[in-house]
Specification:
This protein has about 800 residues and is of the alpha/beta class. Strand 14, helix 12 and strand 15 form a beta-alpha-beta unit. Helix 27 packs antiparallel against helix 28.
């Protein structure tokens, strides 16, 4: 499909100085490299250079995010930076959220941040990780960003990445991220992609794309790394993350073919971050495959930043290879084109869109390893061929800066209806008079007045409940509220009866043990005016108390619903709660709640029916009421059959979807109930001492150290040393000699070789006394060795001996290190 470029907007008012916020989970500074981080950094630079007020909201939780040096570097360029995680920690009275899903927590923080920083003309956000999810819902509900244009830049949706990286998620909650990313694309005022390929992918996968779609290549800063070398090519450099999607397997297969032909490069370098290939660390995978290339020098460069990587590739005799299985608009190719680096790239995704049409036949190849081997053999020993970009970089920058400025002016802003909706609040009660009084009191204190309350008593039997109902009759009559006395038929029947008697165009169902905030109905009414949706759910705050009102000391966590999510609903309810505002007309069309007696989940069932029938559900990201949780006490959920509840909430899949699809959803729930979803698979390696497992960051210092030990033990000393050299310079890197002692001590513990362990401890003490390391380093090394010793009782005396040595080294930090050491005992 043909898409417009941002150039098509130029001609509008593009001279205005705008306040622009860039929301990104990736950024050069706290992150060393990566396509999204590079794109966002260069875009922020360009917008600031063009005179706009640029603020970056960084949303990833990484160790370097709290450091200030990189923030100061952005400030020097006129760019303000806020770190979402640091801002969140500075706020008071923040609760944990559930579902406990990191992207949800970040999205909630982004919404809260915009509540305090709602002054931007334009917000540009990345779809990856869905950080703008609740900000978009907040705008849709009329709460924030009403005069702001929201533009989404699509780089690499998580579902797209998993499919193309042969990566089966170990946690089904990843489907929440898929939903959030999709929502961020679908509800943007405009969507921009660096390639037509990615917009085509979104549409092919059922995204409901907004009207304004643009293709604009990413920005690039070449710097001083430009390749002018003319030396014959002799070193092949795999350029990209060391993972399946980036083509690591095809690259190794091509090297196998070149080895069989006797035409291997003199050196092969792997330039990119480590990753997992199934259950195997990429450095170990490379070491294993390299045994078939004995006459070739292998080099690992796994911790270079963007400038270091390009500078290395500009060295003499080198050419880059990018055999990606799938790619959007990869910076690896872009950097090679912009810096004159000879390269070969697989013709996938948006790669060809970057390359001048006449040059594509020289540098592109398909998915057959033999064809890549042919291309590499054709490069080796010859002068470099340098392909050209398909566009002008200066004009591309002008298109971004002027096009975005025009977009901020021409995109429609939110509008609200002026008529205040009349809301019928439907409260169902059964023998909880004390709690009902708290509920009704909270409704009496609402700032919004255009509502009625309908109280349905579902056959209460206690004298206290009956007495309260008699006392409420004149109060309700005076307020024109309604009190229904019903035969006990359970909540579904009671709520349907309330809806039938309701005078309001909107229904809000509310439990008799919850407490509304004073602004609950005001916010629901505002959302009803602003949103075009006929159902609106809300976040809420959980508090623990059997009888008390919510107060600071009993608040526990915040529930953050996702609205119209389908996939994860086959496992848990993340759509919303009973307290959902719904248009009465829609409620009647859905025939209300089902009326099963003694079974819960009637709210989940109704919400899922709405979603499966195509209804969008808006989310109020701010908690509007307090949800009472009473541990060990009776409630509808824990006094009913849990499996029957779950089956009830699965019925919409079987009733609305075609039978095979409904059965698939049912099977998903069965598997989720009977298996440990978060359990890691056992490694399928031929060694028993493999030290690390998927699930940990493959680029972390601990993992790289462990992999280095593994490679050292398997006679891959050169690769082991290269990994150790790649450890972060900002932290204390563990010397290889110390790592060897750690590994030997772990093996001695495993094999119960206590005399051997004593010898190793003596070697360790001697090494620490050799003046090679300062006191801080020694303390860290002692701590790790003590952790190893603390695992076993027979060496307790040895443990205390080393502990005394540690105390002697760091007497001013004794308490700290004693804690660290004994923590594992």
């Amino acid at each position: 499909m043909k898409y417009a470029s941002l150039n098509s907007l130029i001609g509008q008012n593009t001279e205005k100085r705008l306040a622009i916020c860039l929301v990104t989970p990736d950024l050069l500074g706290p992150v060393k490299n990566g396509g999204i981080g590079t794109a966002c950094t260069f875009l922020a630079h360009a917008l600031a250079d063009h005179g706009h007020n640029v603020h970056v909201l960084f949303t990833q939780d990484v160790a370097k995010a709290s450091q200030t040096a990189w923030i100061a570097n952005y400030k020097k360029r006129g760019i303000e930076v806020s770190v979402a995680q640091a801002w969140a920690q500075s706020q008071t009275q923040r609760q944990e959220i559930f579902p406990n899903h990191s992207p949800l927590r970040i999205a909630k923080t982004v919404y809260d941040w915009f509540c305090e920083n709602d002054h931007f003309d334009l917000v540009i956000y990345m779809e990856w990780q869905g950080s703008a999810f609740y900000a978009l819902h907040g705008k849709q509900c009329g709460l924030i960003l009403q005069n702001t244009t929201l533009a989404c830049v699509v780089h690499s949706p998580s579902l797209w990445h998993s499919v193309n990286n042969a990566d089966i998620p170990g946690n089904p909650s990843i489907s929440c991220t898929w939903h959030m990313e999709r929502y961020c694309v679908e509800h943007a005022d405009a969507v921009i992609s660096p390639s037509a390929y990615m917009l085509d992918w979104c549409q092919a996968h059922g995204y409901r794309m907004p009207e304004r779609l643009f293709v604009q290549p990413n920005l690039m800063e070449v710097g001083d790394a430009v390749n002018s070398q003319k030396k014959n090519l002799q070193e092949a450099v795999f350029f990209g993350r060391l993972e399946y999607r980036k083509g690591l397997e095809q690259f190794c297969q091509a090297l196998d073919i070149l080895a069989a032909r006797g035409h291997l490069p003199k050196q092969v370098t792997f330039l990119g971050k480590c990753a997992w290939l199934g259950q195997e660390h990429s450095a170990i995978y490379i070491a294993r495959r390299a045994k078939a290339w004995p006459k070739c020098t292998i080099r690992l460069l796994v911790n270079c930043d963007q400038h270091e990587a390009v500078s290395y590739l500009c060295g003499p005799g080198r050419f880059a290879v990018m055999p990606s299985v799938a790619d959007n608009s990869p910076y690896t190719v872009y950097e090679c084109l912009a810096s004159g680096i000879p390269f070969l790239a697989r013709d996938v995704g948006g790669v060809s869109e970057l390359i001048d049409e006449d040059d594509r036949k020289h540098v592109l190849f398909d998915d057959i390893p033999q064809h890549l081997a042919d291309k590499m053999q054709g490069f080796l020993g010859h002068k470099p061929f340098r392909a050209k970009l398909s566009f002008d970089m200066a004009k591309n920058e002008e298109a971004w800066c002027q096009g975005l400025a025009a977009l901020a002016e021409v995109s429609p802003k939110a509008s609200q209806q002026t008529e205040q909706p009349f809301i019928s609040v439907c409260v169902t009660h059964h023998d909880r008079p004390e709690l009902l009084q708290q509920t009704l009191q909270s409704l009496e204190q609402q700032s919004y007045q255009n509502f009625e309350v309908i109280l349905a008593d579902d056959g209460s039997k206690t004298s206290e409940a009956k007495k309260l109902l008699r006392r409420l009759e004149p109060v309700f009559a005076q307020r024109n509220w309604q009190l229904l006395r019903l035969e006990n038929g359970f909540v579904g029947r009671a709520r349907n009866a309330e809806a039938k008697e309701a005078h309001g165009d909107w229904l809000l169902f509310f439990d008799d043990d919850n407490v509304a905030t004073p602004e609950m109905l005001t916010k629901f009414a505002k959302a009803a005016q602003a949103s075009s949706n006929q159902a609106i759910t809300t976040a809420f705050t959980v508090f623990d108390s059997a009888t008390e009102k919510p107060q600071a000391q009993n608040l526990r966590e915040t529930y953050c619903p996702l609205g119209s999510i389908v996939s994860f609903s086959a496992i848990h309810n993340t759509i919303g709660d009973t307290t959902t505002l719904i248009k009465k007309e829609l409620f009647c069309a859905m025939q209300g709640f089902t009326t099963d007696y003694g079974v819960g989940h009637e709210d989940f069932e109704l919400l899922l029916r709405l979603v499966l029938k195509g209804q969008d559900i808006s989310v109020l990201p701010e908690p509007t009421f307090f949800y009472r949780r009473v541990k060990g006490k009776s409630s509808v959920q824990n006094s009913t059959n849990a499996l029957a509840n779950r089956m009830r909430s699965l019925r919409p899949f079987l009733e609305i979807w075609p039978a095979p699809m409904g059965e698939l959803a049912f099977l998903t729930q069965c598997l989720a109930s009977q298996t440990t979803l978060y359990e890691q698979l056992e490694p399928e390696l031929d060694t028993e001492d493999f030290p690390v497992f998927p699930g940990k960051d493959p680029q972390s210092e601990q993992v790289l150290s462990d992999v280095a030990i593994y490679l050292e033990n398997h006679k891959e000393k050169d690769l082991a040393k290269q990994l150790l050299q790649a450890l972060e310079s900002s932290s204390v890197s563990v010397p290889f000699q110390v790592l060897q002692l750690y590994n030997a001590a772990q093996q001695a513990v495993k094999q119960q070789q206590w005399e051997k362990l004593s010898e190793l401890a003596a070697q360790f003490t001697s090494l620490m006394q050799s003046d090679c390391y300062d006191a801080h380093e020694q303390c860290l090394f002692y701590k790790q060795f003590l952790i190893i010793l603390s695992q076993v009782e027979p060496v307790r005396g040895l443990y205390h001996k080393l502990l005394q040595e540690l105390v002697a080294i760091a007497d001013e930090q004794v308490d700290k290190y004693l804690f660290l050491a004994t923590e594992y005992a």
